[in-house]
Write a structure and sequence with these properties.
The structure is a homodimer. By secondary structure, chain A is of the alpha+beta class. In chain A, about 40% of the residues lie in helices and about 20% in strands. The structure holds a DNA duplex (30 and 30 nucleotides).
Chain lengths: ~140, ~140
DNA sequence: ATGGTAACTGATAATGATTATCATTACCTG
DNA sequence: CAGGTAATGATAATCATTATCAGTTACCAT
């Protein structure tokens, strides 16, 4: 059973002339099967269970490619390394980050669009994307709850 | 003439028992005199013009300290390194980042507060801070303008 | 003012993520 | 199924950041 994401992503690669190689398929499969926001190192460990030959450099290259194709979204959850998530075009959302345990929770309420036109006009800027990060404490870590 | 920021920051350090050392004062002075969002490397180069003895490790340590005291805010404008800006408590703002030239423009329209309570309730999360980054093209780089 | 002391610093090495290099491999098209 | 080329894996190189540690300095009590 191939996931919907695998189908769409495979299509996107083929359409633009990129080969459907083992590392690319393995990474797509990993992302499709694991919800969350993995860093490269986690993806690398994950895919090497089934594909021990895949090298770290390839994982970096592949995620750069997927990012440029809009298949994944890059998240700066930690300052020392990047995280990635599947980019579903119609699943607009942002992230809450617990400053105690590091947990990441998604939220989909977003009223930024209401402001965008105003900002664009004032700053003479064309907005194409936006990200919101909210820091605080999750229910596990906030004793006062 | 000592700037308002220098006064406030110096006070904050003294109050909490931190010494007013040459590197700390030099970095405060640099930040007060240079608007913008410098990375560590720029701050280091900047202060070494007047204070050639200050080492890179001290700049890192000092900015970590200033961040923990709320004197500066950390920005993840680039994936490879952190940037810093003075944190004026009553000058809430966020950033537009040009994907062509890298220019960073501030905007102060922010309606996130309107949403925060709703998100907190839905996600069982206590929000303490938030950041918004909008990516796109500045007027210089957007030919269609 | 001075001296003691802990906080702070500068130099350096160590770490960890990411990028560059390059010879080899494996997708795809015909 | 063979050939050309994009893609890969291994390795080294780079760059930001952190850790270490011996020497220095700001500050308080004298």
């Amino acid at each position: 059973m191939r996931s919907r994401f695998m189908q769409i992503a495979g299509e996107a690669l083929r359409e633009r002339g990129y080969k459907l190689t083992e590392p690319r398929l393995a990474i797509l499969d990993y992302l499709a099967r694991h919800d969350g926001h993995p860093a490269i190192q986690e993806i690398y460990k994950g895919i090497r269970k089934k594909h021990p030959g895949i090298g770290m450099a390839t994982v970096y290259r592949t995620l750069d490619l997927f990012t440029s194709l809009g298949l994944v979204r890059v998240l700066t959850l930690e300052s020392s390394r990047l995280h990635y998530e599947i980019n579903w075009p119609h699943a607009h959302h942002h992230h809450l980050i617990c400053t105690v345990c590091g947990r990441v929770i998604e939220f989909s309420n977003c009223n930024f669009q209401q402001l965008a036109a105003e900002i664009e006009k004032a700053a003479q800027f064309t907005i194409e994307e936006h990200t919101i990060k909210a820091y605080g404490k999750c229910s596990q870590c906030d004793r006062s709850r």
